[in-house]
Amino acid sequence: MKDIEVKDLVFSYGKDEILNKVSFDLNKGDFLTIQGENGSGKSTLIKLILKDLKKKSGQIKLFDQNIEDFDDYTKIGYVPQVNDANKLAFPVTGKEFVVLNLYKKFNIFNRPNKKCYKKVHDIFEILNIENLLNVPFNQLSGGQAQKVMIARAMVNDPKILLLDEPTVGVDEKSKRDFLKLLAHLNDKHKISILMISHEMDVVREFSKREIRLKNGRIVDA
Ligand SMILES: Nc1ncnc2c1ncn2[C@@H]1O[C@H](COP(=O)(O)OP(=O)(O)OP(=O)(O)O)[C@@H](O)[C@H]1O
Ligand SMILES: [Mg+2]
Questions:
Q1: N or C: which end of the chain has fewer CB within 10 A?
Q2: Can you tell me the distance from the alpha carbon of 187 to that of 206, in angstroms, rounded to the nearest whole number?
Q3: How far apart are CA 136 and CA 114, in angstroms?
Q4: In the predicted model, what is the mean pLDDT of residues 32-42?
Q5: Largest Cα–Cα distance in the chain?
């Protein structure tokens, strides 16, 4: 079984095709990195997988199911890029920010219950960031904020993590630290990883497979 299967995927915003017959798989247990120049369509590809955009033609399968029939997005944890601009949008603590992603499990008053907070604690522990539970999100450093974003994606026990340029603006030491954490989740917690990055020098050390998006197609990295 494949976690993600993309076949002959075609997409355009206007008349120019951004993705022109893109095909690749994410196998169970994979740690796949997609690289490509600015504007090559990497984020677009992620948005198609998240159903934020609708493909023009081709096929996307998630856990062997056509994307049109798939709706259990708790199985796919999405880690968007954090920057200072969107960080300010969250004047809440790490704990409160992460627990919000468990909204499907909230009680009848639409509030998180004890179990929800326990889950958040457990995830922060796995990620070794218990010290960030009560820190306001907008006071975190780039690397810390990125880890809390992972916690947010992890809280529903996803099978896949999708990450869009997670290490941009993070210093070298924190970058390696962050990638090590991803490799750990991949290895020990059996989470498949699809990551977009162009920082291949560090990434290669941790990811298992690399491909490149070029002129709307996938080529070997
Ligand atoms: N909402 C939109 N409407 C029209 N064109 C768009 C839209 N979003 C992106 N594009 C265009 O589609 C192309 C691919 O954009 P995308 O964001 O997927 O690239 P990317 O590979 O993620 O780039 P980067 O490395 O800079 O993040 C670009 O030429 C971009 O200008
Ligand atoms: Mg992008």
A1: N
A2: 11
A3: 21
A4: 94
A5: 51
pLDDT in tens, 57-105: 999 999 999 999 999 999 999 998 776 656 666 678 999 999 989 988 8
Count the neighbouring beta carbons within 10 Å of the beta carbon of residue 122: 13
With 0-12 CB in 10 A as exposed, 13-18 as middle and 19+ as buried, what is 34? buried
Q: Whose CA is nearest to atom 18 of ligand 1?
A: 41
Average pLDDT taken over every residue of the chain: 91
pLDDT of residue 150 exceeding 80: yes
CA of 52 to the centre of ligand 1 (A): 14
pLDDT at 85: 58
Q: Is the CB of 40 under 6 A from ligand 1?
A: yes
Q: Which of 36, 33, 26, 34 is nearest to 5 (CA)?
A: 26
How far is it, in rounded angstroms, from Cα 144 to Cα 168? 13
The pairing of beta strand 192-196 with beta strand 160-164: parallel
Distance, CA of 46 to CA of 49 (rounded, Å): 5
CA 43, 45, 51, 55 dihedral sign is positive
| Mutation pick for ligand 1 pocket among 11, 15, 18 (CB with most ligand atoms within 8 Å) | 18
Ligand 2 geometric centre to CA of 52 (Å) = 14
